[in-house]
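This section describes the prediction task in plain terms. A model, or a person checking by hand, is given the sequence of a single protein chain and must write out its three-dimensional structure as a string of tokens. No templates, partner chains or ligands are provided. The sample shown here is typical of the held-out split.
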Amino acid sequence: MSDSYRARLLARAEELTTEHRDLERLLETLLAETVVDQLQVRRLKKRKLLLKDQVALLRRELDPDVSA
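The expected answer:
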């Protein structure tokens, strides 16, 4: 794997990790409200799970001998 490709994968994994973390904070804020939009919460949770899966895939590609 070339260094530039590896760097791009690492950068993308970091972007997705940051988005995942931001979604977690947003969900915590939404769930603390008295009135909760359950549809919005479900959509955010699905997006968060997708991000987690994408990060795991990138990590496995970066280091295939270690489970992500």
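For orientation: The mean pLDDT is 93.
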